[in-house]
Write a structure and sequence with these properties.
Layout lengths: L12 H10 L3 H12 L4 H12 L4 H25 L5 H12 L9 H10 L5 H9 L1 H6 L2 H8 L3 H23 L15 H4 L3 H10 L3 H18 L3 H15 L3 H4 L5 H13 L4 H12 L7 H11 L1 H20 L8 H14 L1 H7 L9 H26 L16 H9 L1 H16 L3 H7 L14 H11 L9 H9 L10 H14 L5 H10 L8 H19 L31
């Protein structure tokens, strides 16, 4: 406990023991030991008997003096470090040399740690001693740990790894939340709110202003993204940079070539829309990547691969298409639309680019613009034509039935092209948000086979389940249940556990709206096999318990949620060639 005192010429318990062992008059020996090792202040000696008269033990007195002096010394260390004197760090190093032998003493340790904390460059020998001792490493300040980590990537990785795992767990928990809503979903929190998350704040603190540690974290994120294809690592890459931006850490922001691009994109994500001015700025950054700086494209593609970025880009694309419809213009004639598609394509090619190390912007397939988008708009026109037909007086109506099939080229692109598939999926969400049952029943079967099974990804299913709550009353019809369950969800729930979970989430929320005969069959079909994970079993148990409770006491009719479409309709002049409803 008092290791290190002899090195500084201060007596410890062993010295007292030896003195008492060899002396003939123990009381005199103790008195002499106290005089030699007490507070060397002549006037104090005559005052100490007064404390004895008040029954105050000498230990208590010395401890209070010690604590006061220690606090004063720690304040002085901070004052010296914050001062402007040229030799301030020299003074602190001198103090470190004197105090470090006592670093294992609990009462002195805070002083040593305070000195270490305020030294911008701790002597290598001392850093190694701290790193080698688990107890010392644990209690030292993050400022000291940064100096250890920057030359010990494995140790830094051990510290960061649990945080990265926690981040992914939190994101997945949000996607599988039991709360289904079109208004409060995965994309609802603002960028600034997301950056207040525990993991982002901890990582930001661990990095501080250290560029080397920042680069290490980015490398960890790239490696994990490559290993897992998990796009949440792309989100963290952007959030981390913007968290440092919020704190004005110019030492890092000024050297990250993606900073201004990410800053501009962050503003778009906040607004959930890329306006013309910001679109030009983003295009300027992309066009400004020079030869020899091609690796920057890898990082830009990761930032665009962030689901919050792609969500914003696709919503902006849908809104852009609305405007084109109103202007009787073709998709190929819109520079803003082409830029949005370019960025979507770059983001979706992130994994391939980083994996191949070929840092070249993927070429957008021209037919997405010339064939897929017109096909998608023809689906919109079909829907519009049918809607108008229904509003005509009976004598003017024709025997027009709602189309049940989709253009072949539309289905082909959903299956073969990433960018087209992403837009097709968001169009389905848009239709669901408008509570358009007919269009939804027409589109859902086409989602069974999509590029890389994108329609069965967690983010799309999370959003779709929330949007389907707007059509809750339709689940009382056999036709709609067949389209949603038989035509889409049940086609892959047995082979994809995430689909099983999302299907149970939906049923847990809407079971009271589903036809009783259909509900019974669904509950039987969705019973998890023995090898299913705990979350699936837990959801199924919750469902069966709810159904049992419902049998005992039927629920009161629930109010349908209020609707905020999020996309602003564009008013279009009524002409024979242009639909007047928003896309």
């Amino acid at each position: 406990m008092f290791a290190g005192l002899p090195e500084l010429g201060i007596s410890n318990g062993e010295d007292l023991k030896e003195t008492l062992t060899n002396c003939t008059e123990p009381l005199k020996a103790i008195d002499q030991f106290q005089t030699e090792n007490g507070i060397l202040l002549p006037t104090l000696q005559s005052a100490l008997p007064f404390l004895d008269l008040h029954g105050t033990p000498r230990l208590e007195f010395h401890q209070s003096v010690f604590d006061e002096l220690r606090d004063k010394l720690m304040e002085r260390v901070a004052t010296i470090a914050e001062g402007k004197e040229e030799d301030r760090y020299g003074k602190l190093e001198e103090l470190l040399e004197k105090s470090f032998p006592l670093v294992k003493m609990p009462s002195i340790q805070p002083v040593v740690m305070q000195v270490l904390k305020h030294l911008p460059k701790v002597p290598e020998k001392k850093l190694k001693q701290v790193m080698a001792d688990k107890d010392l490493y644990k209690v030292c300040a993050v400022e000291v740990k940064r100096q250890i980590w920057q030359d010990n990537q494995a140790l830094f990785g051990d510290e960061v790894s649990p945080l990265l795992k926690q981040y992914i767990v939190e994101k997945e928990a949000a996607l599988f939340s039991n709360d289904l809503s079109v208004l409060h979903n995965f994309f609802s929190p603002s960028p600034k709110t997301r950056r207040q998350g525990e993991v982002v704040l901890k990582l930001t603190q661990m990095i501080g202003k250290n560029v080397k540690l920042y680069d290490m974290v980015l490398q960890f994120l790239r490696t994990l993204f490559l290993r897992t294809r998990n796009v949440h690592y792309c989100t963290l890459r952007a959030e981390l940079l913007m968290s440092l931006h919020d704190l004005d850490i110019s030492e890092i922001c000024s050297v990250d070539p993606c900073h201004k691009f990410t800053w501009c994109l962050d503003a778009c994500i906040r607004e959930k829309f890329v306006d013309a001015k910001r679109a030009r700025e983003l295009q300027g950054f992309l066009d400004g990547v020079k030869k020899g700086q091609d690796r920057v494209l890898g990082d830009l593609s990761m930032i665009l691969c962030d689901p919050f970025a792609s969500n914003t880009l696709v919503l902006s694309t849908v809104r852009n298409l609305q405007e084109l419809l109103g202007q009787d213009a073709l998709p190929r004639d819109s520079p803003d639309l082409l830029l949005l598609l370019r960025m979507l394509s770059l983001g979706q090619g992130a994994w391939d680019m980083i994996d191949s190390q070929v840092f070249k912007e993927p070429r957008l397939e021209l037919e997405v613009v010339t064939r897929f988008l017109p096909a998608m708009l023809s689906v919109v026109v079909d829907d519009y034509t049918f809607t108008v037909e229904q509003k005509l007086p009976s004598e003017e109506k024709t025997s027009l039935n709602y189309p049940t099939t989709l253009p072949d080229v539309f289905i082909k692109f959903l299956q073969e092209n990433r960018v087209a598939c992403e837009m097709g999926l968001y169009y389905v969400l848009h239709i669901a948000k408008q509570r358009n049952k007919n269009a939804l029943q027409r589109l859902l079967p086409a989602l069974v086979e999509t590029h890389n099974d994108m329609a069965f990804g967690d983010i799309f299913l999370h959003l779709l389940m929330g949007h389907l709550t707007l059509l809750s009353d339709e689940f009382g019809t056999e036709e709609f249940c067949t389209a949603v369950y038989d035509g889409f969800l049940l086609t892959s729930f047995a082979s994809k556990e995430n689909v099983h979970r999302h299907t149970l989430r939906l049923l847990l929320h809407l079971h009271h709206k589903v036809l009783p005969s259909r509900l019974e069959a669904l509950v039987k079909t969705l019973e998890p096999p023995k090898q299913s994970s705990d979350p699936v079993k837990d959801l199924y148990t919750q469902l069966t318990e709810k159904l049992e409770a419902q049998k005992k006491s039927p629920p009161q009719p629930a109010e349908s949620p209020s609707l905020d479409l999020g996309l602003h309709p564009v008013t279009v002049p009524t002409t024979a060639s242009a639909p007047t409803t928003p896309i």
